[in-house]
Amino acid sequence: MESNIYKKYKLYRINLKNHPIIKEDYHTKLYYFTILYTTLKQDNILNCYIKNLLDSYKKVFGIKEEDYNKIEKFNIERNKDALNKMFKVLRKTHYKLTKWRIYTKNYKYLLICELMYLESRLDIYEYINKSYIKDVARDLKINKKDLNYVLEFFEKLSENNFEEANEIISKSKFVLLNYFLKKYKDDFEFEKKEEKNILVIATMSSGKSTLINAILGQDILPSQNEICTSKIITVTQNYSLDRCIGFAKGNKEILHSYLNNKILNDWNISPEYKEIEIEGGLSNIGKYKKKLKFIDTPGTNNSIDKNHYKLTYGTLNKNKFDLIIYVLNATNLACDDDYILLNTVAEYLKKNSKQDILFVLNKMDEIDIESNESLQEIYDNAMNYIKKAGINEPKLISISAYGAKLFRKVLNGDSLTRKESIDFLELYEMFLDEQYNMNNYTNVKVNAMNNLIENREENFVEIRKEKISLKTISNILKNTGLLQLESYLISD
Ligand SMILES: Nc1nc2c(ncn2[C@@H]2O[C@H](COP(=O)(O)OP(=O)(O)OP(=O)(O)O)[C@@H](O)[C@H]2O)c(=O)[nH]1
Ligand SMILES: [Mg+2]
C-alpha cells in the first residue's frame, strides 16, 4: 500500500514554472495566491505539508516577503472588501481575438481545481459538499453546472482517464485546466517508466556527489571537501519537474517541495534521518525511456565515522543494481583505501558475473600535462590497476565532474560562487583545448553522444568581467567526458 508520506510527496510533483498564472502581472499572481492561502487556512487544511508547497508557489510566483507576511495575518472577516476586489479580478474573463476565433481564458476554474488538488485527500464527491468550495465558487460566480464540470474533470484525472478529462475541458473557457491535465499525464508516464538503478561508489572525496550533481545540472547533493555524504541518498531523474523535491525518513519524517543544497545538507547531517530520497532533473537524459535512479553513497574510508563503510558495503550486498559506477580519483589513484574497496568489488563481481559496472576516472582536470604528467599514462595506470584486481575487460571513462557541473550550472543560468567563477574560467580555457578532450581517454564506444549536445543560440554571460559564449560552453561540455558517460547510461 502507498504510504502516507508518499501520497503527500506526490502532491509536490508539479511543474510550477508551467503554472498559467506566472505569465500574469504581479497583482493577479498575488490575488490568486492570497485566495489559495486564506481559503486553505480558513478551513484548517493548511498543514505543514501544504504550507511547504505553497512556499514553493510563493517562490515561483515571486510573491514579495512583505506581502506574504500580510497574507499570513490576513483576517477574512475584517478584510472582506479587499478580498472581494481580488475575487473580482480573478473571475474576469479575458478575451483574445485572433484571425480565426476568439480565445477566452479564466482563472476561476483553475483556482477551484487547484484548491481541490491541494487538498487531494478527499473522496472526489466530498468536495461538492465542502462549504469552502461552495463559498469560493460563489465568490467566483461559478455556476453549479460549471462547478460540476470541474469536479468531473478532476475525478477523471484521479482515475487517469485522460481522454475523458480532455473532453470535459474542450470548451475554451476551461483551457487553463490543461495545466492539471498535463501534470497528471506526466505523473502517469513517470510512474509507469521502468527504473534503472545505478549505484555510485568510491572512496571519500572522489567526486560521487559532484558527478550526480553534474548529471542533474544543479548543485543539490552535498559535495564539498568538508561536507561528505553520510547517508544513502537516492536521486531519481524526473524530467517533468522544474525543481528538486524530496523526503527523509528515520526517527522522523520530513518532506520538501523545493529542495536546495542547504536543506539537503541539514538532512544529511541530522541523526534523525536514515534515508533520503530526492527527485528532479534538468538535463536531457531525463527524457530517456527509463527512469534513472542514482544511489549516492558515503565514501567507504571515513576514519571518523566507520558506519559509512558498513552503509555502503551493506547497500552493495543487499540490493540488485542495473549498473554500478565506480569512481576513481585520478589525483590519488590506487591509494590503500581504494585498493580495499576495489578488491571488495572484484570479489562481488566474481559472485555476480552478470553485473554491469562502469569505471569513471574523475578529476582528470587536475592532471598537469605540462609537468610531465600525461593523461594517457594516468588512464593506462588506472586501467592496469583495475585489471590487476582481477576485473576483466573493465569499461573506463575519463571525466571532470567538477568542470561538467560548473558548465551545466552556467548553462542553466545559476550563479557561481567566487571560487567557482575562478575555477570556471580556468576549466573553460582548459576544455577549449583539444588536448584535454576526455573522449580520447576511454575504451567505451557510444553513439548517442551528439544527441546530448544542447543546441544553443549565440548568447553570452559575463563571468568575472569576461564575456563567455553559452554556445561554446555547450560544445565544450562534451570534452569533460560527461556526455560520454550519460550516453552510456541511456544505452541498453
Ligand atoms: N578539480 C576537480 N575537483 C573535483 C572533481 N569532482 C569533484 N571534485 C571536488 O572534490 C571534492 C569532493 O567531491 P564530492 O563530490 O563531495 O566527493 P564524494 O565522492 O561525494 O565524497 P564523499 O561523499 O565524502 O564520499 C569537492 O571539493 C569537489 O568539488 C573534478 O572532476 N575535478
Ligand atoms: Mg558525496
From TrEMBL:
It comes from the Bacteria. One of its GO terms (cellular component) is membrane. GO terms for biological process: mitochondrial fusion. SUPFAM superfamilies: P-loop containing nucleoside triphosphate hydrolases. The keyword Nucleotide-binding applies. InterPro entries: Dynamin_N (IPR045063), Mitofusin_fam (IPR027094), P-loop_NTPase (IPR027417), Small_GTP-bd (IPR005225). The keyword Membrane applies. It is found in: Membrane. This is GTPase Era. It comes from Clostridium tepidiprofundi DSM 19306. The lineage of its organism: Bacteria, Bacillati, Bacillota, Clostridia, Eubacteriales.
